[in-house]
Amino acid sequence: GAFQDPFGGREDLRQGVLRCVGDPDRRFQEDALRILRGLRFSASLGFSLESGTAAALRRNRKLLGEVAPERIQVEFFKLLPGKAAAQALRTYPEVFGVFWPELLAMVGFDQRNRHHCYDVWEHTLHALAAAPEDPVLRCTMLLHDVGKPASFTLDKQGVGHFYGHPAVSRELAEGMLRRLRCGTDFRETVVRLVEWHDRDIPRTDKAIRRALRILGEEDLRRLIQVKRADNRGQAPEYWGRQEELDKAESILDRLLAEDACFSLKQLAVKGGDLLALGLAGPAVGETLEALLERVIDGALPNERGALLKYVQRIRTAKGGKKGT
């Protein structure tokens, strides 16, 4: 019944310290995934690595290149939601750069822009820390600006710009996630959010309905969270952007409460209705899409009678032109 603690684990727990048992070099060489697992524990628990363990982790980091991508993926995406994930990334970027070298280009990259008080890497980490503890959102924040170094230009006034960086980031993120053998749904969602993260969506019913049409409710809500976190990684004097995002979220909530139409499934007219009017083949789908566009734009109400009347009027007009 005596308490045995041969390696001083209780004191390490009290101090919030992680260390390898015995020779840390040997522990990491036995299984290189322990390098990433140690950082995962650090990120999730908020513990620091003991100096000898940290030094050995850095010395042996290249061994991660011999670990199967699937194993790295599991550990890494357990790390990202951790409360101290940003600090782990900040302290050991060279370790993560073994399997994602694209990250290293962001470290210390001066943005030279008044909207940013941090370099690209620090902005990324502040944005990541501001995002909910969710693997999809945290991964999106880690990769949303990975294309900035390759997109950098400097104008005559010495101001930095990153024109087209969402597209470059999207392309890089796609390749990085594929290398880790990420699942299709996860990869496509992150890549979509990376591509949309800097796209302005006006705070109007029409614009929000259009975004719903393309992204769906779940990803549009995720995008708003991404934009919030991105803004929190900017200079504090520009945090007023949060109020605009509040407006967007309020409009989204209201449209959903009103059961606003933004998909073919919600459209009051179906394919059978158009077949009954004499339409056939591709014309049915094309007409449904055209009706949905007009409903989303607010040009037509989502009412069966009004929609069918519009179709009949258009068909009559086309027939009349053909007759003349």
Short key terms for the protein model shown above:
324 residues; two-stranded parallel ribbon; mainly alpha; 61% helix
Structure description:
By secondary structure, the protein is an all-alpha fold. The chain is built from 17 helices and 4 strands. A two-stranded parallel sheet has the order 1-2. Strands 3-4 form a two-stranded antiparallel sheet. Helix 3 crosses helix 6, helix 8 runs antiparallel to helix 9 and helix 11 packs antiparallel against helix 12 (184-196).
Concise synopsis of the structure shown:
With 324 residues, the protein is mainly alpha-helical. Helix content is 61%, strand content 2%.
β-strand number = 4
- Biggest sheet, spatial arrangement of strands: 1-2
Q: Which percent band covers the strand fraction?
A: under 5%
How much helix is in the residues?
55-70%
**Spans with pLDDT under 50 lasting ≥5 residues?**
none
Order of helices and strands: HEHHEHHHHHHHEEHHHHHHH
Main sheet record: 2 strands, parallel
Radius of gyration: 26 Å
Give the overall average pLDDT: 95
Number of helices: 17
Classification by helices and strands: mainly alpha
Overall geometry: elongated
How many angstroms does the end-to-end distance come to? 102 Å
Question: What is the fold's blueprint, element by element?
Answer:
Blueprint: H1 9-15, E1 17-18, H2 24-30, H3 33-45, E2 48-49, H4 51-59, H5 69-79, H6 85-91, H7 93-96, H8 120-130, H9 135-143, H10 148-151, E3 153-154, E4 160-161, H11 165-179, H12 184-196, H13 205-232, H14 241-257, H15 271-276, H16 282-297, H17 304-323
Parallel strand pairs: 1-2
Antiparallel strand pairs: 3-4
Helix pairs in contact: 3-5, 3-6, 6-8, 8-9, 8-13, 9-12, 11-12, 13-14
